Amino acid sequence: MDVVWPDWRDPKLGARIRVALWLHGEIGEGRRFNKQQLRKAIPDVEQVDRRMRDLRPAGWVIKTYRDMAALSPDELYLEKVGTHVWEPGQRSAGLRSISGKVRRQVMEHDLHRCVRCGISAGEAYPDDPDSTARLTLGHVNPHKHGSTARLEDLVTECARCNETAQHLTGVQLSPEQIWDRIKELSRKEKQKLLSWMAVGHRSLSDTEQVWSRYRQLPAVHRESLQKKLGLLLGADGSDS
Ligand SMILES: [Zn+2]
C-alpha cells in the first residue's frame, strides 16, 4: 500500500512538520545535507534551523560537524528519522512546555546568567555591543535523546550560547583565531580558561556572583547599595 505523505511545501502544516517531512522525503536517513538546502526548501520560515532542532526531542538524530569529523561546518547528517510528527496524534511529540515554576527555579539556581558565557539578561555582548543577551533555558546535554524538561536537565543559557550549544549556528572565529587569542592571555588567565573548559562553563568569581544578585534588585535598592559601597570605599572610590 502506498502511503501518501503530506506535502512539505504546504505552509499550513507548520514549520516543524514541514522540516520533518522534507528531511524524511528529500534527504533520508544516512545522508548529508546543509543548512542552505534547508533554508532554500523552506524559505518562508524564520529560524528554520530552530524548527529542525525541535525535532531532536522527538527522537530525530541530526549530527553536525562537531559530532562527526567528516562533516564540514555547514553540513548536517540525518542519522535517524524519529517520530513521524506529521501523523495525527504525533504532532506535539517531543514538544514540552517548561512550567513557569521550573523556569524560575533554573534561572534562580544559575543566578540569572548564562552558564556558558556568564552574561546576564539585558547585558550587551562584549564582542557585539549592539546586541543584548536574552536568557533562555537549554539542556545540560543538548544531544541527549528524549531530554526532559526536568529541573536537573536544564540550565540557563543566553540565546546565542543556546544556538551554539545546539551546534547549528555558524562559527564566529576559526580555531586558529581563537588559539591566537588564547596565547595572548596571561598564564593565570590561561589556567582559568582551562578550568572552564574542563567543567564546560564559566565559573563565576565571588564578585561576579554578587554582581548577578545585585542586578536582580530593583533600581532603588541598587542605587542605595551603590551609594553604600561608595561611602565604604571613600567618595573617590579608592580603596583605603
Ligand atoms: Zn551565553
What's the layout of helices and strands?
Blueprint: H1 15-27, E1 31-34, H2 35-41, H3 48-53, E2 61-64, E3 75-80, H4 100-109, E4 124-125, E5 128-132, E6 135-139, E7 154-158, H5 159-165, H6 175-184, H7 187-199, H8 206-215, H9 219-233
Antiparallel strand pairs: 1-3, 2-3, 4-5, 6-7
Zinc ion binds next to strand 7 and helix 5.
Give me a quick take on this structure:
This protein is of the alpha+beta class and 240 residues long. It has helices at 15-27, 35-41, 48-53, 100-109, 159-165, 175-184, 187-199, 206-215, 219-233, and strands spanning 31-34, 61-64, 75-80, 124-125, 128-132, 135-139, 154-158.
Can you characterise this structure?
This protein has 240 residues and is of the alpha+beta class. Helices cover 38% and strands 13% of the residues. It has 9 helices and 7 strands; from the N terminus they run αβααββαββββααααα. A 3-stranded antiparallel beta sheet has the order 1-3-2. A hairpin with a 2-residue loop joins strand 4 and strand 5. The longest helix has 15 residues.
How many strand segments? 7
The secondary-structure class comes to alpha+beta
Give the helix level as a range of percent.
Answer: 25-40%
Strand order of the largest sheet: 1-3-2
Radius of gyration: 22 Å
Apparent shape: globular
Specify the number of helices.
9
List cofactors, ions and other ligands.
zinc ion
Determine the strand fraction and express it as a percent band.
5-15%
- Average pLDDT score: 83
Cα distance spanning the termini: 85 Å
Largest sheet, strands/sense/barrel: 3 strands, antiparallel
H and E string: HEHHEEHEEEEHHHHH
**Low confidence ranges:** none
